[in-house]
Amino acid sequence: MGRRRSRVVRTVLPGPLASRVADLGTGTAAEPDTALPVQARLLAVASALFAERGFAQTSVQDIVEHAGVTKGAMYHYYSSKDDLLQEIYTRLLVLQSERLAEIAARPLPAAERLRAAAADVVVTTLDHLDDAVVSMRSMHMLPEKRQATVRADRRRYHERFRALVEEGQRTGELRSDVSADLVVHQFFGGIHHLGTWYRPEGELRPEEIGATFADLLLRGLTDR
């Protein structure tokens, strides 16, 4: 019987996973959450390990040991670390793309939908910070064909986000004297750095950070 094809697994542990898998660097990780299905457990542990140690420094053996499964169980779902890495990226992007589509379809002015979309992508990034950190730091380690797929997926998301900016510019809600492309690049540049400074134990909550990012974006597009 052939290996069952992997599908995007949406089960994500609450909060940054690295904080839930203790002392990964010393090999004294906490017991894995065996209540999770095996595939979801593999993804959760791989995301935590890749974020904490790095993709190249994490072996298949590390993953299966921390997940409490055999290599055979892992290979039933994933043929390699590359498969795990790509699915970690994909599940976050699928979530964010679905959220963006829902927000964009709301019967609200473009500026309000842009504000909601901006806040949402920040909150979902922080709620799944390990996945986001892994995606931003390690995607270049995928084979070129897989990298091309990842870039195309992310480009489609950015284009949908940019469409909200352009709609607001057409309706006169937002400044039309700035490049929508530049707006998108500047905004997502800030999101890409969230993992370098955000700490879940800090004073700022994801919703507060999301609202602030969205407010700064809209102020820049409405103040003259």
TrEMBL record:
Residues 36-96 form the HTH tetR-type domain. Residues 59-78 bind DNA. It comes from the Bacteria. The lineage of its organism: Bacteria, Bacillati, Actinomycetota, Actinomycetes, Kitasatosporales. Gene3D superfamilies: Homeodomain-like (1.10.10.60), Tetracycline Repressor, domain 2 (1.10.357.10). InterPro entries: Homeodomain-like_sf, HTH-type_TetR-like_transc_reg, HTH_TetR, KstR2_TetR_C, Tet_transcr_reg_TetR-rel_C_sf. One of its GO terms (molecular function) is transcription cis-regulatory region binding. SUPFAM superfamilies: Homeodomain-like (SSF46689), Tetracyclin repressor-like, C-terminal domain (SSF48498). Keywords: DNA-binding, Repressor, Transcription, Transcription regulation. Pfam families: TetR_C_24, TetR_N. This is TetR/AcrR family transcriptional regulator.
